From TrEMBL:
Pfam families: Polyketide_cyc2. It comes from the Bacteria. Coiled coil: none annotated. Gene3D superfamilies: 3.30.530.20. It comes from Palleronia marisminoris. This is Polyketide cyclase / dehydrase and lipid transport. Transmembrane segments: none annotated.
Length: 146
C-alpha cells in the first residue's frame, strides 16, 4: 500500500480557507489541474455518497465519491471510482486545522492506494506534488487574491 502525505500552511483563518475548500465540487475554481467538474445526479456537494465527475486540464477523466464530510472537523474523505491512473483502492483525506497563535491554517492532504512497483514513483509525483501540493498552493493564492 502506497501513501502520499502533503501539508502546508495557508496564511488565512480557518473559516476563510474552509469556506472555499469545503465544496467537494469547487476544486475547478481554484485547482490548476481541473478543467471542469460536476456533481452527478444533482446531489449537494457536501452530501456523503455524492460523486464528482471531472476532467483534468491535460485531458484525463476521474470520478470520485465523497465518503465522509465534517464541517466540525474541517475535513472530508473521498475515494476514486474511475481514474486514468493505474491505481486501486485510492482513499484520500483533506483536512484543515487552525494555527492558534496566528490567523493561519494548517492544511493536510493525504492518500493511500495500491499501485504497481513500476508505476509507483510516477503516481506518487502526480498525486503528491502535481495534485496535493499544487492544490494547496493554488488554494492559498486564490485566497490572497480575494
Amino acid at each position: 500500500m502506497a501513501k502520499v502525505y502533503i501539508s502546508d500552511i495557508i496564511e488565512a483563518p480557518i473559516d476563510t480557507v474552509w469556506a472555499l475548500a469545503r465544496d467537494f465540487n469547487g476544486h475547478g475554481e481554484w485547482h490548476p489541474r481541473i478543467a471542469e467538474s460536476t456533481i452527478e445526479d444533482g446531489m449537494p456537494p457536501d452530501q456523503v455518497g455524492c460523486v464528482r465527475s471531472f476532467t483534468l486540464s491535460e485531458g484525463g477523466h476521474l470520478r470520485e465519491r465523497l465518503l465522509s464530510f465534517s464541517d466540525l472537523d474541517h475535513a472530508f474523505t473521498y475515494s476514486i471510482i474511475v481514474s486514468p491512473m493505474p491505481i486501486e483502492n485510492y482513499v484520500a483525506t483533506f483536512r484543515c486545522t487552525p494555527i492558534t497563535e496566528r490567523r493561519a491554517t494548517f492544511v493536510e492532504w493525504w492518500a493511500t492506494f495500491e499501485v504497481g512497483a513500476e508505476d509507483e514513483a510516477e503516481i506518487r509525483q502526480a498525486v503528491g506534488q502535481e495534485t496535493f501540493a499544487a492544490g494547496i498552493r493554488a488554494l492559498a493564492e486564490r485566497l490572497e487574491q480575494a
